[in-house]
Amino acid sequence: MIAHKCPHIQVTIVDMNQERIDAWNSETLPIYEPGLEEVVKACRGKNLFFSTDIDKAIVEADLIFVSVNTPTKKSGVGAGYAADLFYVESCTRRIASVATSSKIVVEKSTVPCRTAQSMRTILEANSRPGLRFDILSNPEFLAEGTAMSDLDKPDRVLIGSLSTPEGRAAQQSLIEVYSNWVPKEKVIGTGLWSSELTKLAANAILAQRISSINALSAICEVTGADVDEVAYACGLDSRIGPKFLKSSVGFGGSCFQKDILNLVYLSESLHLPEVADYWRQVITMNEYQKRRFAQTVVSSMFNTITNKKLAVLGFAFKKDTGDTRETPSATVCRFFRQENAKVSIYDPKVPEKQIFLDLTEPGVQDDSAVVKKQVTVCKSAMEACTGAEGICILTEWDEFKQLDWPAIYESMAKPAMVFDGRGILEADKLREIGFKVFSIGKGVNL
Ligand code: UDX
């Protein structure tokens, strides 16, 4: 977006992974995101470059965005909760050792509070004499599937800096970059630590809204209340607002769970166990929602899905992306496998290879042969549904609303059941065709 909006700025994206960089330089980009390809193809070779020559890019740059992974630690202190800052630290060290002129280093990766401070210490301790490094925190709030429009018209851009004159001057340089297309009042300057914490806080609050509505969906299913009516009516209160109140089979994505776990870890390290418990509950509710959905499928299908064919429509964690990180669909499919169902999966954007990667555990034991016996990846929704006894909607892809439902009904074993984990289908119309329908948060009246 910077390259697109600022033709006078040269943007060089560097990565150690040659294959990724080659893909960015090729006709087929390594990720799918609506509108991205057009922008990349328009700017590439003009003021946008992809390269593995990291040192050259460091030397040439005035401003460096550190945008690397900060995955949840798998071992050691804080395993399962804390962010692994290995990549952030190695980038910082590389910048310090390679730079021959002063730089503004922008922390873009989501990091725990006070990481900028550590980056500053590393830079200052390892750089050549006479060089200045100013650190800014500029968290990214884009969501997948709408990344380009979010970048184009952000609700806000947050730039955290130290409150020293040098910190403020660095902040001003980055404000100038964004002011090429973002209205001034939307670019907010804060302290470094506020900015770092805001990223975790925003994601935690968003996820908390989903867990809140999902908790209510469980009450709706028992009482016969309709979760969409409840969400709509609550959302009309301007203090609550209508967004992020769509009940679902659970939230997924690379950020929510990771960032909340991070916040939990931070709270525990700060000796605030009540705060940690509070945020942990958002995740607990999400796990419960996935399990609850899968259990509803089993109980509705006469308490057994052994050898029954189940069609799973949607594997991505949300529509308009091929990303499957933390996708609720994988959790639900694993549950179905444990119950010995035959699962046929269709997703318009997720490749077969990725689905099998997500459903197998090669690191632990090679169970791919077993998985392939139970799971089939299909080329269309119709193919997945033919002969199935139940259909589960696990991603809200628009095309699932337009399917030829009467034809699908004809092709299925009876009673034909639909379990709408995203609340996107018109249940009454499906019932008229003959389906038995369960929609999340709408009462179990199959
Ligand atoms: C999120 C934040 O929205 C974004 O600001 C941050 O920068 C990165 O993390 P993303 O994970 O791409 O973005 O997608 P998002 O649209 O937030 O959806 C996350 C998950 O919540 C998806 O699985 C989605 O289906 C689910 N969701 C979202 C609901 O179940 N109900 C809702 O009302 C909204």
Describe the structure.
The structure is a single chain. The protein is α/β, with parallel strands linked by helices and 446 residues long. It has 2 domains: 199 residues, Rossmann fold, CATH 3.40.50.720; 136 residues, NAD(P)-binding Rossmann-like Domain (Rossmann fold). 45% of the residues lie in helices and 13% in strands. The protein is built from 18 helices and 13 strands. A 6-stranded parallel beta sheet has the order 10-9-8-11-12-13, with helices on both faces. Strands 3-4-5 form a 3-stranded parallel beta sheet, sandwiched between helices. Helix 12 packs across helix 13. The radius of gyration is 24 Å and the shape is globular. The mean pLDDT is 95. It binds uridine-5'-diphosphate-xylopyranose. Uridine-5'-diphosphate-xylopyranose (UDX) binds next to helix 9.
